[in-house]
Specification:
The protein is mainly α and 335 residues long.
């Protein structure tokens, strides 16, 4: 297993380098000008100097190489400086946002906790709901509960976040007035009342994100449980006189979780993609909203860095899913 993980990590390096090159070239070919939002009263020669200050006057290979050095070398050294108080990056140029003239990774570090808080809660809620629903639907196949669950999960998986987000705002904020429609990222929990308000403002974005995860995960869980219920070891366990709850909740459930782990690992980057839309709908001040704002402002360093971070998440969580699958299932060997 260790050799497999090391091989995958080594193979991930050229993969990520190629992805970074593709992202950079796509952004170079994309329409838009960073100077488009500069007032028309600014003289052309001033705009040209501003472009040179942003590094746009240099050839594409040089700009890509500079970004590579800044992201893969200088930014990790900045983290080391912050942790241990060293001065490796003193006077070094970091990846700078064209829009705010601030280091990109500092902005990401400020926004990331909000996204992780909402996404992590949504994933935990989805797992807690999807696994029992999937198990019971499989055990009571073609029952009224199974048919209703199939219909609801198909509808939930088909509705995009930008529609379901607006729908829950209209119902629970406008019509019923139960929850705030805008997520207050400056809110701090200091007492019970502030904690209750935090829960209220999280319910709708978490609901929207958890809806699609629950729909997908419950169907995978149902299919996996159905496959295991017909296996010989289940009939043997029942023939030994084990209680039905023991057979289902211990033997069947444990073996049914193996393929679901892979779905969980691959689905984590996807939920970050869904968070981009959800953060826009509920005004969550996270990395999704940061990415949309950077795209609108043609802030290429910010867009490139955030897009590459999403690519890193996909590669890393695919590796984690493969490793966990081999750890929990002794039948899997990566020799």
């Amino acid at each position: 297993m260790l050799n497999f993980a090391i091989r995958r990590l080594i193979f991930a390096v050229p993969t990520l380098l190629f992805i970074s090159l593709v992202i950079f070239l796509l952004l170079e070919l994309a329409p838009g000008d960073p100077m488009a939002q500069v007032p028309l009263t600014v003289p052309p020669e001033v705009k040209e100097k501003m472009r040179e200050a942003l590094g746009l006057g240099e050839p594409v290979p040089i700009r890509f190489w500079k970004w590579m050095v800044q992201f893969f070398w200088i930014e990790p050294l900045v983290l080391i400086d912050n942790l241990f108080g060293t001065g490796f990056t003193e006077g070094k140029l970091r990846v700078i946002s064209w829009q705010t003239r601030s280091p990109v990774m500092e902005l990401v570090g400020q926004r990331l906790p909000q996204t992780l808080w909402v996404v992590g809660t949504a994933y935990a809620v989805a797992i807690a709901i999807a696994i029992p629903i999937g198990v019971y639907s499989a055990y009571r196949q073609y029952s009224m509960f199974d048919n209703a669950g199939t219909f609801i999960t198909m509808v939930g998986f088909s509705i995009p976040p930008f529609f379901s987000g607006v729908l829950v705002i209209v119902i629970f904020s406008v019509q019923l007035g139960w929850f705030p429609s805008i997520y207050d990222t400056t809110h701090k929990v200091t007492n019970w009342e502030s904690f209750v308000f935090q829960l209220k403002q999280m319910i709708m974005p978490v609901m929207v994100l958890a809806l699609q995860i629950t729909s997908q995960l419950s169907r995978f869980m149902r299919a996996s449980v159905l496959d295991n219920l017909g296996q010989d070891y289940v009939r043997t366990a029942r023939a030994k006189g084990l209680r039905e709850s023991t057979v289902v909740l211990i033997h069947v459930l444990r073996n049914s979780l193996f393929p679901v782990v892979a779905v969980l690992g691959v689905g984590i980057p996807a939920i970050f993609g869904g968070a981009i839309i959800t953060e826009q709908v509920f005004k969550v001040n996270g990395i999704g909203q940061l990415l949309i704002g950077a795209i609108q402002a043609n802030d290429l360093p910010m867009v490139q860095t955030l897009t590459f971070i999403f690519a890193v998440l996909i590669v890393v969580f695919n590796l984690i899913a493969d490793v966990l699958y081999g750890v929990i299932d002794p039948r899997i060997r990566y020799d």
